Amino acid sequence: MAIVEAKAGGSRASERQASETGDGPAATNAASNAASNEASNDASIVASNATTAAARDAASTAGAWEAGEPAARPGIIPAERSGYLNEIVQTVRRRRRFVDAQVAAARRIAQLRGAKEQLASDGGRHMDAEEAAAVAAKLGAMLAARETELDAESRKLLGEWPAIREAYRPDRQDRSGGGPAPAAEELAAESLSGTRIPRVSLPRFEDDGELLRWRLTENLPGHYPYTAGVFPFKRTSEDPKRQFAGEGTPERTNRRFHYLCRNDEAKRLSTAFDSVTLYGHDPSERPDIFGKIGNSGVNVCTLDDMRKLYAGFDLCHPSVSVSMTINGPAPAILAMFMNAAIAQQTDRFAAEHGREPDEAERAALQAATLRSVRGTVQADILKEDQGQNTCIFSTEFALKMMGDIQQYFIDRGVRHYYSVSISGYHIAEAGANPVTQLAFTLANGFTYVEYYLSRGMRIDDFAPNLSFFFSNGLDPEYSVMGRVARRIWATVMKEKYGANERSQKLKYHIQTSGRSLHAQEMDFNDIRTTLQALIAIYDNCNSLHTNAYDEAVTTPTESSVRRAMAIQLIINREFGLAKNENPLQGAFIVEELTDLLEEAVLLEFQRIHDRGGVLGAMETGYQRGKIQDESLHYEHKKHSGELPIVGVNTFVNPRPEQRLDDMELARSTEAEKREQIRNLEAFRERNRDRSGAALAKLKETARSGGNVFEALMDVVRHASLGQITAALYEVGGQYRRNM
């Protein structure tokens, strides 16, 4: 892979961590022992693998950087930044110590004030006036000294609380605004019984210390550290529904999209691609390709396909957003999508004005489109190496193209489209437990941050374009995964990177667990999905896909998708407690789980750091090995019955009625496969005179270190996905896994 993250971290960084932790001698000794044992074993392995990998892959990727020159290249993460995960661990732990110190200070100050108040109200019953004055003076001096221990942030949080409590009162009649609760928001919903259910419930702490701890570690939704959510209130105009779809031809998937959102003002589309597209191929009669065309996803190989896929949706409308689950060939597919959106606006201009736009008008249309388009492209290549396996280019070159996409977004003001969806879902589907899913995903996210910073991008120019994607299963940790992710991300972004408020807000999509769907007793899958959706909504996820019960065996049918959508609608519109938007706050178990999961994530960060960081750990196969171990652990427990799964290894139906061969299966037809091949041939024939020059320009851009995505924006108009992939293999190298 030739992914050279500076691996100097190792044992030296581990020793530094042990000295800086400050969590007591037991923790320090444990950290020191673990660091020395693991780092001494791993440092030589990491260094050896990095050296051999760099030498082995140099030939395949040399052309991507300095054509014909085997000179040493800089690592993806600069040497001086190799300890970033350790720094992140220390940042979070320093914040914890700060919170503990501020809570203790607030409590002491409140106690001293209480003593002064008691003294003032004593009325001479226990001491005379002279003695009382002397004691009051001493208390005042102590209070003045203690008040210096409380920093400005803490004083502000405590001082503004009475006004906030009043502003959020459910029966408040003043709708004029001006306080923390927006005037336009209804603060309560009314049940059939006439009970006013507050949208946001507030704690009833009397103790300043406990109140300050809550505000520093939990706080209201929409307030740092965003533990309860990144927005003060949920939207009332739409549900967080984003259903995944893709099958057959672009026309067929387009019909499914229109079916899924036919009654919704907001059109939130999520696109699944077939494996032919995921691996950057064109459809063909090749035996290993033909049967996969349009199965388990839509086949897209040209700009024509992309335009058909989203026909009838205004891709620049504020209520339309498009998510695309694509990774290896993501830059080319994203370029096709952007061009499809631009073509829509160009066609609209021509229809309105009766002529084609001139060059200046075309440039203005393109700029306006890029500023308006909304959605997400997954493009998370680190997760692909660790869990999902649709890597096609060398990891170094794939990361370069990710950086090129983000730089293009910055240069052209693309603010509403996420350049990457940093994904834990596929890590979980490959077998990881929720702790590992969250730790690996956040570690990958911070790796992208460090890489983009090393390219000269400013944190607040790119961090708002990062989004996250998690799985929700039934393990207890899933109930607090969003809380922990938001708190760690916000803390590190603010305290370590100095990012602004928008950059501190971690926004994420949840898909219910595909791994928890079973072919036995498939009707029970809807019950599991309902519980997973409920905890996602309780935890204020920003968008949600509920799996269909039959996805254990097929791409979902129209009827099963309707049932899956109903799960979300019933929770959001019928389930009473969901009218409250912070139901997890204040529960003892939720608070304890949050702290336990956060600490488990930090420990995993340290293990990854000790192996040379995310990229160094990938060289040794650490992430894949851990995922496989956890998958095997799950399977053992499932097959032994220690982990009960109703309908599978317990409460098994003695007379199963439904046979799998009676089920409706969604598959692409022979005619659809042939149609895609014919359409590809027509596109290639139409662009035969222009594709060669376009592809040559693309390769030259990559060789010279130019912005590959900027070149792709032109190339996709004349070349197919397979042609682009083949051209980029020549200059960027093909992916090969370390063994």
UniProtKB/TrEMBL annotation:
Sorted UniProt keywords: Isomerase
PANTHER family: METHYLMALONYL-COA MUTASE, LARGE SUBUNIT (PTHR48101:SF1), METHYLMALONYL-COA MUTASE, MITOCHONDRIAL-RELATED (PTHR48101)
NCBIfam families attached to this UniProt entry: acid_CoA_mut_N (TIGR00641)
Lineage: Bacteria, Bacillati, Bacillota, Bacilli, Bacillales
Disordered: annotated segments: 1-41, 168-190
Protein name as catalogued: Methylmalonyl-CoA mutase alpha/beta chain catalytic domain-containing protein
Residues covered by the Methylmalonyl-CoA mutase alpha/beta chain catalytic domain: 214-346, 366-733
Domain of life: Bacteria
Keyword Isomerase appears in the UniProt entry: yes
Low complexity biased stretches: 26-41, 181-190
InterPro entries for the chain: Cbl-dep_enz_cat (IPR016176), MeMalonylCoA_mutase_a/b_cat (IPR006099), MMCoA_mutase_a_cat (IPR006098)
Provenance organism: Paenibacillus artemisiicola
